[in-house]
Amino acid sequence: MLPTVNWIAIVVVAIVAMLIGMWWYSLKGFGKQWIKLMGISQRKMKEMSKNAGSSYLLNIIATLVMAYVLALFIAYTSAITFVQGMQTGFWLWLGFIVTVQFGQVLWEKKKFQLFLLNTAYNLVGMLVMGGILAIWP
How many CA atoms lie within 13 A of 75 on its CB side? Predict the structure, then answer.
């Protein structure tokens, strides 16, 4: 049987993670570096912006799933402090996100710097989400 989770907390941390991502990949954050590492032209960026609505919707759904699974692990580990939640987020990040994204470097020949930029974003998100979920009653 799955543990009980706080759905309001899950929605809130998903929104927080999306806000972190919006800043991370903005031009004020690391957006310029991401564009350069991806090799995206200004024309391609404009094209991507036109179709961003469905991508944002799907990303919100994916982030909600991630927040839900993280909440389950927070419950399984009995994490009740911000640091304990961050530790749970860290281990899940290291075990699943880093290892999967590293395959993009090995097999898709993505730049290692792009891997670092993307996995660092995921680390920040997992740490913040884990911390919040652990302290949210």
Answer: 15
Q: In the 8-state DSSP scheme, what is residue 111?
A: -
Which among 129, 100, 15, 93 is positioned nearest to 61, based on CA atoms? Answer: 15
When divided into structural domains, the chain yields a total of 1
Residue 119: which of 131, 130, 111 has the closest Cα? 111
Torsion of CA 14, 17, 18, 21, to 10 degrees: -160
65-118 residue pLDDT tens: 999 999 999 999 999 999 999 999 999 999 999 999 999 999 999 999 999 999
Asked if residue 101 belongs to a domain, the reply is yes
Q: pTM for this one?
A: 0.92
* Cβ–Cβ under 8 Å, residues 75 and 133: no
Q: Which domain holds residue 31?
A: 7-135
| Residue 1 maps to a domain | no
SS3 36: helix
Q: Tell me whether residue 99 is in a domain.
A: yes
> Is residue 2 assigned to a domain?
no
